[in-house]
Amino acid sequence: MLFESFSAAQSTLLWGVFIVALILGAVVNKTNFCTMGAVSDMVNMGDYSRFRSWLLAITVAIIGMLVLESYGLVNADSSFPPYRSSQLVWAENILGGFMFGIGMTLASGCGNKTLIRIGGGNIKSIMVFIVIAVIAYFMTNPFPGSDQTLFSILFYDWIRPLAISLDGNQDLGSLINSDNPVGTRLIVGGIMAAMLLFYIVKSKHFRSNPEFWIAGIVVGLAVIAGWYLSGSIKVDIPDEGEQYSMVQYYENWDMVSESEEGKPAQGMTLSPQSFTFINPMGQTLGYVSSGLNSALLTFGIVSVLGIILGSFLWALISKSFRIEWFVNFKDFFTHMIGAIFMGFGGVLAMGCTIGQGITGVSTLALGSILAFISIVFGSALTMKIQYYQMLYEDASFFAVLITALVELKLLPAGMRKLEAL
Predict the structure, then answer these.
(1) What letter does residue 159 receive in the DSSP assignment?
(2) Which of 45, 122, 257, 332 has the most neighbouring CB atoms within 10 Å?
(3) Structural contact between residues 128 and 405, judged by C-beta atoms closer than 8 angstroms
(4) At what angle do helices 366-391 and 397-407 cross, to 10 degrees?
(5) In what order do the strands lie in the sheet with 234-237?
(6) Interior angle at CA 288, CA 140 and CA 82, nearest 5
């Protein structure tokens, strides 16, 4: 998509993302697409249908990204966040994903589900949103009058040295064949998509339920649409006979623009990207606290607003809108702890169940795959612990933890401390 001015290009991007998010919010509310719910169904009921819906979204996103990159419409090598960075922050991906998995379980849903619940009238989720937003903002922005962030104070000195510097990008195509990463990505991505699709359609229960299909396909297509909108928009520079991406235009602003009017606060938020919700919650806090400064308006902020509004509209149409508040102080405390874990974990992992689990995995980035697995593990382990704590109120945490790990088949059955009832 080619535009004659940066303002027209930016307006198209933001409105396009908002419309896609609006549809996404409505469909996710309608179909009850929920990644935490998917893990819960697996762990507690042995039902993998909603997990298959999540995998279908991943499959659609992988195929879509392969097509977009093959036609040169998107270059995920320069994405925001940098999924394919040559610096593999594996410890951050794993720890952050694990923390996020714990958090979304305690807070009754991931970042996306929090926004969906807000649109449906859940005040608990507004509180969760605020806590996540504050943590996410200060994980990436310095405290007033300081050059220190939460990340630099709590994590940088001990976790960043664990990162591995690679010779090339961290996507599977580059890792397997650095001489031909593009072609290798097509093969690897194609094989992954085929294997996932085979597993998905193997379930008769899944095949017979249209809502599982609708949810997975729409979420996957929304991620593709985000990549396309952010990656294919260009600005025509007639004086130079060139076409600049929005990032290139920003980097050359002084040469191609007559004034500073309309210049965004940051250039990296103009990079190719798609849906993710933890860092954008922090961006939304910054935008609101700035007095709605238009220079701070980003892909992430409009996606947050679109999801909430889409969910709200569906809640009105379906007459499912209702106000929810905390049942008691324990419910409040649990949600707040969950929000804290999600805020820290989502930024550390560079994304949430959508941001890393679908958007990141669509780039075939190793870090995204590690984060995805860690999120599922953190959530599943937390659910098992909660289950045994409910059954055995006087049991030690150690006994509960060991039993939970046995239940997840990560320790031998002989180590079980507590029997299932």
Answers:
(1) H
(2) 122
(3) no
(4) 120
(5) 2-3, 234-237, 242-245
(6) 30
- Joined tokens for residue 291: 């007095």
What SS3 string covers 34-81?
CHHHHHHHHHHHCCCHHHHHHHHHHHHHHHHHHHHHHCCCCCHHHCCC
In the prediction, which pLDDT does 257 show?
84
Evaluate whether residue 170 is within a structural domain.
yes
Residues 6+ apart with CB under 8 A from 157: none
Q: Look over the chain and give the mean of its residue pLDDT values, rounded to a whole number.
A: 95
CA distance 251 to 319: 48
**Does residue 209 fall inside a structural domain?**
yes
Among residues 64, 117, 31, the alpha carbon closest in space to that of 311 is found at 117
Residue 164 has phi, psi (to 5 degrees) of -110, 125
Q: Residues with Cβ < 8 Å from 284, sequence gap 6 or more?
A: 133, 300, 301, 304, 305
Q: Which of 158, 195, 174 is nearest to 63 (CA)?
A: 195
CA distance 63 to 58: 9
Question: What's the rounded Cα separation, in Å, for the pair 329 and 81?
Answer: 36
Containing 3, the helix (H) or strand (E) segment is strand 2-3
Residue 348 CA to residue 341 CA, distance in Å, equals 10
Query: What does the chain come to in residues?
Result: 421
85-103: b or e for each residue (b if 16 or more CB lie within 10 Å)?
beebbbbbbbbbbbbbbbb
- Cα radius of gyration rounded to whole Å, the chain: 22
The residue segments making up the domain with residue 383 are 2-415
Paired sense of beta strands 2-3 and 234-237, if any:
parallel
pLDDT of residue 244: 92
Tell me whether residue 341 is in a domain: yes
Contact yes or no for 223/275 (Cβ under 8 A) = yes
User: What dihedral do alpha carbons 187, 192, 197, 200 form, nearest 10°?
Assistant: 170
Phi, psi dihedral angles at 270 (to 5 degrees)? -100, 0
Contact 220, 60 (CB under 8 A): yes
Whether the Cβ atoms of residue 106 and residue 298 lie closer than 8 Å to each other: no
Question: In whole angstroms, what is the distance from residue 348 CA to residue 103 CA?
Answer: 13
The rounded distance, in Å, linking the Cα atoms of 345 and 339 is 10
Number of separate domains in the chain: 1
Band (pLDDT 50/70/90 cuts) for residue 24 is very high
| Per-residue pLDDT at 360 | 97
Strand runs labelled E in 63-163: 87-88
Encoded tokens for 411 = 């320790």
pLDDT in tens, 77-91: 999 999 999 999 999
